[in-house]
Amino acid sequence: MAFDYSLDFKNIDFRQHPELYLVGKGEQGVLLVEPYKSEILPYWRFKTPEIARESSQKIYEMFIDYLEQDDFIGADMARKFLQMGYTRSRRYANHKSGRKYQPDANNSHDKKEILPYDVDPIKAESAAIFKTKWIAAKTNDKYLQLLAKHKQMYEKD
């Protein structure tokens, strides 16, 4: 099922209401779902490989802690932050400004022009660090079991 952006995220504690959480695709909801966003976001950094290593390790430890508590939503949110660490640092690795597309002066919805690549090896290394932790999280056996259980309980079509 698609992530439900219509929920009142400012007033929902997803730890208390796991039935309202939909996994969605990729990083959907990563900056919305509380209290997890506030627990994980302070540790999310990728400016240098050293910072990315420390950040990804801390978030992965949080992922494991959530799993040990059978807190699927916390684990999924930590997985999303690891994924976002990879995708954002990869974007900055490819485009120094962090913008993928050429700014559109006329605001048309036609196909946007992708800016030229200007590869930053420092951000590319940060991306690789996050990617390793993200892959470890999304393939973790207990995570996959809790994912299946959550979908069976709450995400019936």
UniProtKB/TrEMBL annotation:
Pfam families to which the protein is assigned, alphabetical = DUF4385
* Name the record gives this protein: DUF4385 domain-containing protein
What organism does the record attribute this protein to? Anabaena azotica FACHB-119
Q: Record's InterPro entries?
A: DUF4385
According to the record, the residues making up region (Disordered) are: 93-112
